[in-house]
Design goal:
This protein has helices spanning 2-6, 8-33, 49-58, 74-78, 87-93, 104-112, 135-147, 160-166, 177-190, 202-231, 235-242, 250-260, 270-286, 292-306, 317-324; strands at residues 40-43, 63-66, 82-83, 96-99, 126-129, 151-154, 157-158, 169-175, 191-198. The chain is of the alpha/beta class. α10 crosses α14 and α10 (202-231) crosses α15.
Length: 340
C-alpha cells in the first residue's frame, strides 16, 4: 500500500537520499577524525605563506588569517579566509596556529607580544612555527606552549616559492609527536617530503643543515655559470647537460634557470638567507664547530646586502660575482668592486 501511494519512482528517490545522507555522515566522521573540523589560524602571508595558506583553505579548513600588511592577505580573504586584527585574535579563534614570518625577532613578537599568540591561545591548541628561526627559540616556544596546556612544533620548510605554490615543500619537524600525528593531514597539503625529526628544535637544526648545503652550492652555481659565460657557451644548454649529471642540484636546475633569464625575483630573499646563515654560524660556534665554507658564503652574501640586493632572491648572488669580475654593472647600483 505504501509503495502504491508514493509510487516506485518516489520510493527509489527516497532511498537514494538516504544513501547519500549515510555517505555524507561517513564522510563527515572521516573528516572529523582527520581534524578537518578544527579551525586553523595562519600568520604571515608573504611569498611563502600566501600559497601555503591557500592550500589549507582549498583543503576545506576554516582559516583565520593575519599579516602585518593586510593587502598581502587580501587574496586569501577574498577566497574565504577570515581576517583578524592581530595574532591574539587568530589564536583565540583557532585550534591550530601556523606562523611563517621573517626573522627571529618577528617570531618573538608574534608569540610573546602584547597582542601575541600566547596572550590569546586556548588550552589544547597547537602552534606550528614554519619560520626558519633559532633552535633555542623553538625550545622556548615549546616550553611556553606546554605551560598553557598546548602543544608546539617547529616546522621550517625548503623548496622556495615554487614548492610553496606546488604544494611540494620539504618540511622538517621538531616538537611534540602527538601534535605532528594530529596535523599530518595539513602538512600533506603543503609538502611531499615530510619528516618528523625529534624533540623541539630538531626541525630548525635540520633546516640549518639544509641552508649550509645551499650556501656553498650557490657559490658553485654562480661560478659555473660565470665560467660558461666567459667561455662563450649557451648558459641554458650548459644547464641542460650539467643539470642531469653528477653536478645536478635543485639550485642549478631552478635558480640557475632564473639567472639565465635575468630573473632575480625572490623565491627566498637574500636578506632572509643571510639571517639563516648567521643562525647556523652562531649554532656552530656554540658547538665548537668550524665551518669555513659557510663563513665564506656568508661573506659573499653580506656583500650582496652592501649592494642593496637584500630584496632579491638568493640567485642574486650572481650579480655580485658579475661585478667582482667586471662583467656587469647595473646603473644606480653600488659598485661592489669597491668592497673590501
Amino acid at each position: 500500500m505504501f509503495v502504491r501511494l508514493l509510487g516506485k519512482n518516489n520510493i527509489q528517490m527516497i532511498r537514494e537520499i538516504e544513501k547519500n545522507m549515510t555517505n555524507d555522515y561517513n564522510f563527515s566522521k572521516q573528516n572529523k577524525k582527520e581534524g578537518i573540523y578544527k579551525t586553523v589560524g595562519f600568520i604571515g602571508t608573504g611569498v611563502m605563506g600566501l600559497p601555503m595558506c591557500q592550500h589549507i583553505l582549498n583543503g576545506g579548513y576554516e582559516i583565520f588569517v593575519y599579516n602585518r600588511t593586510k593587502a598581502k592577505a587580501q587574496k586569501l580573504v577574498d577566497n574565504g579566509a577570515i581576517w583578524c586584527e592581530n595574532p591574539q585574535q587568530v589564536a583565540n579563534k583557532s585550534d591550530i596556529i601556523f606562523t611563517i614570518v621573517g626573522f627571529p625577532k618577528d617570531v618573538e613578537e608574534t608569540y610573546y607580544g602584547d597582542n601575541g599568540i600566547f596572550s590569546g591561545i586556548k588550552p589544547n591548541s597547537i602552534v606550528v612555527d614554519m619560520t626558519t628561526s633559532e633552535p633555542s627559540l623553538a625550545v622556548k616556544i615549546s616550553e611556553m606552549a606546554h605551560q598553557k596546556s598546548c602543544l608546539a612544533l617547529d616546522a621550517p620548510v625548503s623548496g622556495g616559492d615554487t614548492g610553496a605554490k606546488n604544494g611540494s615543500l620539504a618540511i622538517m619537524i621538531g616538537g611534540d609527536q602527538k601534535a605532528f600525528d594530529e596535523i599530518l593531514p595539513i602538512f600533506k597539503l603543503l609538502g611531499e617530503n615530510i619528516k618528523y625529526m625529534g624533540k623541539a628544535g630538531a626541525g630548525q637544526h635540520t633546516k640549518m643543515s639544509n641552508q649550509i648545503l645551499i650556501a656553498s652550492t650557490m657559490i658553485g652555481v654562480v661560478e659555473s655559470l660565470l665560467y660558461a659565460y666567459k667561455a662563450g657557451n649557451d648558459l641554458g644548454e650548459v644547464i641542460d647537460v650539467i643539470g642531469k649529471g653528477a653536478a645536478a642540484s635543485w639550485s642549478i636546475n631552478n635558480l640557475g634557470r632564473r639567472i639565465v633569464n635575468k630573473n632575480y625575483d625572490p623565491g627566498f630573499f637574500i636578506k632572509h638567507f643571510v639571517k639563516d646563515m648567521g643562525i647556523a654560524l652562531k649554532e656552530a660556534k656554540r658547538m665548537n664547530l668550524s665551518l669555513p665554507g659557510l663563513a665564506l658564503a656568508h661573506q659573499f652574501y653580506l656583500s650582496a646586502l652592501a649592494c642593496d640586493y637584500g630584496e632579491l632572491g638568493t640567485q642574486g648572488l650572481y650579480r655580485v660575482f658579475e661585478q667582482m669580475n667586471g662583467i656587469y654593472f647595473a646603473p644606480n647600483q653600488k659598485d661592489c668592486n669597491t668592497l673590501s
